[in-house]
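In response to a reviewer's request, we include the raw inputs and outputs for one of the modeled complexes. The two entities were modeled together in a single run.
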Amino acid sequence: MRFIDEFRNAELVRRLADKIARVSTRPARLMEFCGGHTVAIMRNGIRQLLPPTIEMLSGPGCPVCVTANSDIDKAIALAGLPDVIITTFGDMLKVPGSYSSLQKARAEGSDIRIVYSTQDALQVARDNPQQSIIFIGVGFETTAPTIAMAVVQAEKEDLRNFYVLCQLKTTPPAMRALLDLGEIKINGIICPGHVTTIIGTGAYQAYARDYGVACVVAGFEPVDILQSVEMLVQQIERGDPRVEIAYTRGVRPDGNLKALELMHNVFDTAGASWRGLGEIPGSGLKLKVKYARFDAGRAFDVVLPPAREAPGCRCGEVLRGVIAPTGCKLFRKACSPENPIGPCMVSSEGSCAAYYQYGESDG
Amino acid sequence: MGEKILLAHGSGSRLSHDLIDRILAPPLNNPILSRMDDSAVFDLSGRVAFSTDSYVVSPIFFPGGDIGRLAVCGTVNDLSMSGARPLYISLALIIEEGLELEDLRRVVESVAETAAEAGVIIVTGDTKVVNRGKADSLFINTAGIGLIEGEADISGSNARPGDRIILSGGIGEHGMAVMSKREGLQFNLPVTSDCAPLNHLTAVMLAASRRIHSLRDPTRGGLASTLNEFARQSGVGISIEEAKIPVHDGVRGACELLGLDPLYIANEGKLVAVVDPGDADTVLAAMKKNRYGVQAAIIGEVTTEHKGRVVMKTRIGSSRIVDMPAGEILPRIC
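The model returned the following structure tokens for the whole complex.
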């Protein structure tokens, strides 16, 4: 396949790995924020190619994983209402909440349908005018424009039975919260490729300036990731943290202005609760008053049992990069993809799932 | 609108007989079936392989095949993977009220064509009709009997260190072809299902070597599942090379788009063989002469290291574990 194979070129990968090993003289701790990067790194065995000076940590960039239990509980409670059809991306189905999961709710009789886009959810609403269709809006800035578009379209069509349970989150406040915590010293961040395609690099300038953290926006193929590591190492060695883009074929410094405008027209920022990071002001998106009638949180009244965390689950620390998945006592023992205890083991972008599935090997 | 299946078609009434006489019997006819007794009666001597499987694929027609072809291939292939020569097949249909009669005719004709290609005959059958909503258009069960000739002892637990792993062709084609026609996910894929009877392929392989240790068709769970099963059953490690695994560009592209890994996607016309290193090239050469083995390749070998696990050397030269898939990747693909 053109445009992909060149970014998986073994020779290019080897040359980049050699260069990194040559350039890297001091210990550097790099965090990949995005779950997509975690999976790509594990799947391609990229850590094996890096010198011992470089430590790679996984961050909180998996939208399903950072969804708080109380938010999952809410989706499950909505699924239990009469004449409600829940539409969701498949990733959310197996995620355990405090007491159940959408998958279990479906087995118990709730009408829960997996869709591949918000357009499919709109179609379900058109096809079932007598029922209320609730789309579970979990995601980052990459998902938000598609949900905004669906809401605008529902308004235009005067679809009265379409709702969004808006649990969207934005990445820059979470990155800052993580750096503010100061639990771990991070020298460089592999910034999320797809999110940055939307929001641009503006928000990262402060990390380089105020926290002295090197920032490079990376794509998702082996060559992309190694190139970003090489650029980060160069910055760290020079003692010159700044924001650079390695993923030039996807990202522009200003982001996607059209998508941003759409988001700003439909959403206001709000506080949001993150697993592992807690309540972060300004890190969520809620529907503007103008679109409030599409807000499932307002339209439906559900009583939630008190949220609780699974005993022993350390997803929060995994998401903050404090421990690797292998540092959790439940990993590979009580907790597996077949029987997940925390969300990081369920989501296709979850760190625990990636470590479990692709666990590194010397073979 | 054409004629539809009614509940009465399954009631044992005149309509049932009419259905058998008009739609089912003509394409499938053979001397054993045409006796129309309660069971098929035939002679058999030797080591017998016996297998059954049910088919609930949705949609029932997909690019490159249909539920009828799948139902014959599935059982023929299960028998073949034990080293047996498939002979007799049973066919049970569970039909949802309202199925187009024409659709049923197409499926039964496909059963007949596939059976003819495989050289097996349908010797007994059954038809039930259930209320609308109680089955999704058509479910099929087939069972089959085959004979194992000679001393062949083929099992997933027979893989030995040093053995070569041979794959008969490109992976993931069936799963992606079915997925491309799913509601809510329709896309044009330049790939059709690989659904095919593999008994002629296994016959030439078994004729070429007596040292084929394991055979399996990587259906649900894909190549990754089959290799993990071999590793666990035989208590050995398996090493494969990503660059040697044939994958159609269309499958690769669609997998990239959907975030899937072809290693985990179902096949219905591929096999994996574990062969003594001394015979691997001979078996490979024999496979390449068969229409369903043209793309066959040696993709790896059995090792004493990392017992019970499958490790893959990636295209970029690193290595990673290939684990069993967790949970369903795509429901009802077969």
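As requested, we also summarize the result in words. The longest strand of chain B covers residues 84-96. The domain at 164-322 of chain B is CATH 3.90.650.10 (Phosphoribosyl-aminoimidazole Synthetase; Chain A, domain 2).
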